Amino acid sequence: MSVDRDQVLRSAAAQLTRKGSSTLDEVAKASGISRATLHRHFAGRDALVRALEDLGLKECELALDAARLGEGSAQDALRRLIKEIEPAAGLLAFLVTENQLFEGDDRHEGWSRIDDRMAELFRRGQESGEFRIDLSTAWLTDALYGLVGAAAWAVLDGRVAAKDFSYMIAELLIGGAQRRVES
Amino acid sequence: MSVDRDQVLRSAAAQLTRKGSSTLDEVAKASGISRATLHRHFAGRDALVRALEDLGLKECELALDAARLGEGSAQDALRRLIKEIEPAAGLLAFLVTENQLFEGDDRHEGWSRIDDRMAELFRRGQESGEFRIDLSTAWLTDALYGLVGAAAWAVLDGRVAAKDFSYMIAELLIGGAQRRVES
DNA sequence: TGCGCATGAGACGAATTTGTCTCACGTGGT
DNA sequence: ACCACGTGAGACAAATTCGTCTCATGCGCA
């Protein structure tokens, strides 16, 4: 009977990813609930977006924890991270397009912490000699976000099979498109 | 006296990239014109977005032409493409987030043609042995869009120097993050 | 059966945005 | 000097969306 808050948020993210200017009524219908109920759980559009941000933030933190970025090679850690972050890809695809969250320098500090943890992984890989040093850790972090968003969108649109999600991202990010004659 | 239509569109794209829900009044002010004038040139919000799409489409076609994708190695052609597409990056960064354009299967056929040309480049690279075949051409195309958008945003936000734009994208897309002991 | 509770549906005014209009101003060309 | 034209500023109603409210329904539970 009671509404599943997380499920509503996921449906809302999917709807808002498809159409960023969706009406609250459209969001509610996409979540299978009425506008009144949506409004009972989230005070307004801002509150809804904030909740989406918090959920995405939480899932990213969990993915970062589960990936154990400090263990093993940086490459393997990155592969684990991409695999762990897959459930949050839909949410991230929306959040990265929601530049409104970054307006006014009051960006949620949580993202800085996540960025730092990712950049730290790339830095570790660079220091160990696994990753090239001519690509900045900031760019690699942004590129990871961009590829996750692109992959999520490609999957939603049927151009990439869902099962290939993490493979496609990890291989491109780590190895690039270039064919290497000797592995 | 007369308004520079393309300049207005670029300013509008920048404003809408920053805040997708910008008012027409905000868009107009960002372009340095009044709402009345904006409305004289573009019938409404839809018409404005359509014009932005057409401009982005045109610039992509021009970039594809200028890159001469059929000449030389696929790698070099891809590097040329990325360099040529840089001026349109801001526009693309907005358009890729404007999923509204893809609603209802009435997507502008022009994008299909562009996608095809890009996919053809990757296919050529795969057939020549330059690119790996385990990453589909559709994914490589989407990844290119995603990286261009991510890079445009990173530059706008000051995390990546504008002069590194094409290098960062090309190197990551072609060579990946992995360090290769022998070049 | 009867109660509690969350929800769905809809109405209502307020706020915002939009589309259209008018009018005055400034510039460029005749 | 005069006119044509594009523009800025603002007013105005229409349309849309939002926030809040009320009421009825359905389900679980005692």
TrEMBL record, chains A, B:
Keywords: DNA-binding, Transcription, Transcription regulation. Transmembrane segments: none annotated. PROSITE patterns: HTH_TETR_2 (PS50977). Residues 23-42 bind DNA. InterPro entries: Homeodomain-like_sf, HTH-type_TetR-like_transc_reg, HTH_TetR, Tet_transcr_reg_TetR-rel_C_sf. Gene3D superfamilies: Tetracycline Repressor, domain 2. Residues 2-60 form the HTH tetR-type domain. The keyword Transcription regulation applies. Pfam families: TetR_N. It comes from the Bacteria. PANTHER family: HTH-TYPE TRANSCRIPTIONAL REGULATOR BETI, HTH-TYPE TRANSCRIPTIONAL REGULATOR RUTR. This is TetR/AcrR family transcriptional regulator. It comes from Streptomyces flavofungini. The lineage of its organism: Bacteria, Bacillati, Actinomycetota, Actinomycetes, Kitasatosporales.
